[in-house]
Write a structure and sequence with these properties.
alpha+beta
Length: about 150
């Protein structure tokens, strides 16, 4: 199924990049913004032993953090110029151990509305150029306009 969305803000890419650059969590984890399209985002993270659990797999909390951002920025790319984005809820399915040289996190909007967007994000481990799906998240994101302390 293909979803073709049109961004409400012609400068959506710049808006997303500026917001992403302010996310200290993404910077700390070494996650970079690789691709932006209306309703679609791709993030990348190199393997870092500091973010693993006791078996050497990327910790589920780190995976969910990245997937949440992928959902959020996919939704944010479609929002009006003056809007900000906040997560309302998400559900993650951990499908396989997250072990790899790097990780790709994709996010895409499934349904967008005036206030709420439903998104799907997927995490892939990458080893020697080969990708493996390791987790999937569905998330609900809220469009926020005019709320004190919540800006782009």
């Amino acid at each position: 199924m293909t979803y073709n969305f049109v961004a409400q803000d012609e400068q959506f890419e710049e808006k997303v990049r500026k917001s992403f650059a302010r996310q200290r969590a993404m910077e700390t984890l070494g996650i970079t913004l690789e691709k932006i399209e209306p309703g679609r985002i791709e993030l990348r993270m190199p393997y870092n032993e500091a973010y693993t659990q006791q078996h050497g797999f990327l910790h589920a909390g780190i995976v969910s953090t990245a997937l949440d951002s992928a959902c959020g920025y996919a939704a944010f790319s479609l929002m009006p110029k003056e809007a900000a984005v906040l997560s309302i809820e998400y559900k993650i399915n951990l499908l396989a151990p997250a072990k790899g040289d790097s990780f790709i996190f994709t996010g895409r909007v499934l349904k967008t509305g005036k206030t709420v967007s439903v998104c799907l994000s997927e995490a892939y481990s990458e080893n020697s150029g080969e990708r493996k799906l390791v987790a999937q998240m569905t998330g609900t994101m809220m469009t926020v306009i005019g709320r004190e302390g919540v800006d782009q």
